[in-house]
Design goal:
The chain is α+β, with helices and mostly antiparallel strands. The strands form 9 sheets. It has an 8-stranded parallel β-sheet. α9 crosses α15 (646-659). The two termini are 48 Å apart.
């Protein structure tokens, strides 16, 4: 599912709110009119439609390559009533959706989840509704995607040291290496997949309508929180993992002597400290000489000289925080770093009460890349000496070392910050292979020691996924396409390499929660359009995670509300996926509830069902991506894996140690540059166009009289918008979709538009209409007519065509224009 994201870029640029020119109500009903011009043709699924992963495609039994254009249903939305299931299936299919990902079914008790009050058995009504929903989806040509482990905390049911850490919620990470939890996952998989659907007469495992099964959601020993969480596991899991690690080490090293030689021989004599004013003296005007206190947006802190528990130091006291960690930083810049060289960082630190700060060494310039050190430092009231080492990832004449601390207002204390080229590797006196006491983590550890641990994690993870895959496919006889989880860097990808297909997730500007996680009244969102950031986009990231020889899907994607630019979400992912020849995309999420299908307002960050800026472009995606209206780019990006041999794994581990999860770093040139010439993405404008299908998103003001081989247009207002064009019927009917912002009535934004808190407003949902013109350059419109459509897809009124130009006008109160040839 979605996740908490903490950005560490040093500069925040809030988009300037452009006054809305024209807002019009646009509520797209669940029940579209039979006369709708937009209904996608669909037929019930049958045995010939069974999907099989073959090479880099999903192939039907008839040998046809099938692309998946889908949505998620989350929590209670997986269990609609029978009458609602019928309505939803028809709406989804009519919009061109051909798969529903059933997500978070296992996370709650009925009515939000599949469990009865005991939490150990399926609730009869939940199972009945799920059966019927899957059946109705199949009747409308829609495959189901069943997620197995998402939110169920089997550790609690098993009473084996239920973890309290937020980062271990849903049994994240521990479910990969804890035998009892793995067995519990198998029991759940058996109970669900061998269940016979009473409306279809077959087990889920045998049903051609169950196209996909996912083993566990966003779960890996290389996931976002792993580096901070795994060294601090609860005792039960820490001992279990360390024991497994020592057994693994014994298969690689024959003796303690051999281990010590491998791990300690890379020590390099320590050189002089390269930091200025390491003693942190001369504090004036809220700054320390040679150091910089960075304060972004409204975040503020003070620095003063003090004495804490008999030690002279500086006190850093956050005065105002906004929950974005990098909005407050204390750093020293202009450092010279040499690639491949080891460095040791040491300092004393304490805090008024337990808190965390982040320590990093990174570029002091765009693109602000990390250079080797990114560490979460846990502070308490006592003075502690912290020592870390790293190997520089690249040369840099303008690097910085810094503490990032903007998520907690607890004051903390620093003294004697030193950074030295060189490193001295040691082992603890009690570490020994013979007595199985080698530790998983040391503050100062050699590259070989780090790589060994990463290889152990990779093999542990792959063993788990391969084992679950074999159980599902062979013991349960499941005929669906099975994947493990999403890609987490090179080693995470290797762990998924035996799955039927490779999957990933991405969100542009995911909401951030300064206080407690998922506090609906305390959240912020960076008001930035993805069209302004091609190299830093989620699309560029996703393009680097595909594995050659396997189908590739993105099963969660969104640009959350209330982004001004959220209309970019669907057309950008659909067009990019088509260009890169991906095999499936599921938008996150259609809904979280089974009781609000007919609401007329935008209710949350992610639900797309009543958000016209999202749902209004779904029909475009069905044409552009699912129906291949946009042709693939000549050389879609793919990652190559060699045979699963130890030298290859060691090479991947070294790559992962250097680049972490950043797969983009493994490709040159960048993906956006590769695609230049075919499409265009610069100056705040994203353009993908091919024949009679295209997307234009971003800064419309920079597109004065823009044109390419197919279209020419000029948008007068609003300043930023999204325009898409796609064929509906051969070359005789086209849909033009145009939208700026999308908001509810009375939605109340903060001054910088980065939150609405709980003030989402009321219905009806509105769209910011577009004014301008669009011209098909190679199409004489003399014998054509254009119509503005109502939200139910029926014709509202005729639209003027002037000198071969279709005149888009807010007076039509629509985002949909139908262009069709006279009969």
């Amino acid at each position: 599912m979605y996740r908490l994201i903490i950005s560490m870029l040093p500069i925040l640029i809030f988009g300037t709110a452009i006054p809305a020119q024209d807002f019009a109500p646009f509520v797209i009903p669940v029940d579209q009119s039979p006369e709708s011009e937009l209904v996608f043709d669909y037929q019930p699924l049958n045995e010939s439609d069974r999907l099989t992963a073959k090479g880099e495609d999903f192939i039907s039994n008839e040998g046809k390559a099938i692309r998946i254009w889908g949505v998620n249903m989350s929590f209670g939305a997986c269990f609609p009533s029978h009458s609602d299931a019928e309505r939803l299936a028809k709406r989804l299919a009519g919009a061109g959706i051909n798969s529903v990902r059933l997500h978070h079914m296992d996370s709650a008790k009925w009515p939000r989840g599949i469990w009865d009050n005991s939490g150990t058995k399926f609730h009869p009504e939940a199972l009945d509704r799920l059966d019927y929903f899957i059946d109705q989806l199949a009747e409308c040509g829609i495959y189901s995607n069943i997620n197995l482990h998402v939110g169920k905390e089997h550790s609690t049911d098993l009473n084996i040291a239920a973890p309290k850490s937020y980062d271990l919620r849903y049994d994240k990470m521990i479910s990969i290496f804890t035998p009892e939890i793995i067995e519990a996952q198998k029991r759940y998989a058996r109970a669900l997949l061998t269940h016979k659907n009473k409306y279809r007469g077959v087990r889920y495992a045998d049903d051609y309508a169950i196209g996909f099964v996912e083993i566990t959601n966003e779960n890996s020993l290389f996931m976002w929180s792993a580096a901070a969480t795994l060294p601090n596991l609860p005792e039960y899991y820490a001992k279990l993992l360390q024991n497994q690690y020592n057994h693994w080490l014994k298969t690689k090293y024959t003796s303690d002597h051999e281990l010590v030689q491998a791990w300690l021989s890379q020590s390099v004599p320590l050189e002089n400290n390269i930091l200025l004013n390491s003693e942190l003296s001369n504090v004036q005007n809220n700054q320390v000489k040679n150091w910089m206190l960075e304060q972004h947006d409204q975040a503020r802190a003070t620095i003063s000289s003090t004495t804490w528990k008999d030690k002279e130091c500086i006190e850093i006291k956050p005065e105002n925080i906004d929950g974005i960690s990098w909005h407050l930083q204390f750093n020293q810049r202009d450092l010279k770093i040499e690639v491949g060289k080891p460095y040791t960082v040491s300092f004393y630190a304490a805090a008024a009460k337990p808190r965390e700060v982040s320590l990093s060494v990174m570029e002091n310039h765009a693109d602000w890349q990390n250079l080797g050190l990114a560490q979460t430092v846990k502070l308490d009231k006592s003075w502690n000496l912290y020592r870390y080492n790293f190997i520089a990832k690249q040369n840099d004449k303008n690097a910085r070392i810094g503490f990032i601390f903007g998520k907690d207002d607890t004051e903390f204390y620093l003294a004697n910050i030193i950074m030295q080229p060189g490193v001295e590797y040691k082992m603890s006196e009690n570490e020994s292979l013979e007595n199985m006491s080698v530790e998983l983590y040391k503050d100062i550890e050699s590259p070989t020691r780090t790589v060994d641990r990463m290889m152990f994690y990779a093999e542990t993870e792959k063993s788990y996924f391969d084992g679950m895959y074999k159980y599902i496919k062979e013991e349960l006889g499941c005929r669906a396409n099975v994947t493990g989880t999403i890609v987490f860097g090179p080693l995470g990808l290797w762990a998924q390499s035996n799955m039927d297909y490779i999957d990933s997730h991405a969100y542009w500007k995911h909401p951030n929660f300064p206080g407690k996680p998922w506090d609906s009244g305390n959240w912020i969102i960076q008001q930035q359009a993805m069209s302004d950031f091609p190299q830093g986009s989620t699309l560029a990231e996703l393009s680097s995670e595909r594995l050659a020889g396997k189908p590739y899907t993105v099963s969660e994607y969104n640009h959350p509300a209330p982004l001004d630019s959220q209309a970019e979400c669907v057309p950008m992912i659909a067009s990019w996926a088509a260009r890169q020849d991906w095999n499936g995309v599921w938008l996150y999420t259609y809904s979280h509830s089974n009781e609000q299908w007919d609401r007329n307002y935008i209710n949350s960050y992610f639900d797309v069902d009543t958000n016209p800026a999202k749902w209004g472009f779904v029909r475009f995606g069905a044409s552009a991506f699912r129906s291949f209206a946009l042709k693939e780019y000549k050389t879609p990006r793919k990652f190559e894996l060699e045979q699963n041999e130890s030298p290859m794994l060691e090479s991947l581990a070294k790559t992962h140690a250097r680049h972490d999860r950043n797969m983009k770093a493994l490709f040159k040139p960048d993906i956006v540059s590769e695609m230049e010439g075919l499409d265009s993405w610069h100056d705040g404008v994203y353009i993908v166009s091919d024949g009679s299908c295209g997307v234009y998103a971003g800064n419309m003001a920079s597109l004065s009289e823009s044109e390419n081989s197919t279209f020419k247009f000029k948008i007068d207002s609003p300043g930023s918008a999204v325009i898409s064009i796609n064929p509906l019927t051969g070359n005789s009917k086209y849909l033009i979709t145009a939208c700026g912002r999308s908001e509810n009535v009375d939605m109340i934004f903060s001054d910088n538009r980065n939150t609405v808190g709980k003030n989402w407003g009321s219905g009806p949902a509105q769209i910011e209409s577009v004014k301008g013109y669009l011209e098909f350059k190679e199409l004489n419109l003399r014998n054509w007519k254009c119509y503005a459509l109502y939200p139910d897809g029926t014709i509202r009124e005729e639209v003027k065509i002037e000198k071969n130009k279709i005149l888009l006008d807010p007076k039509h109160e629509t985002m949909w224009y139908l262009l069709q040839k006279n009969k």
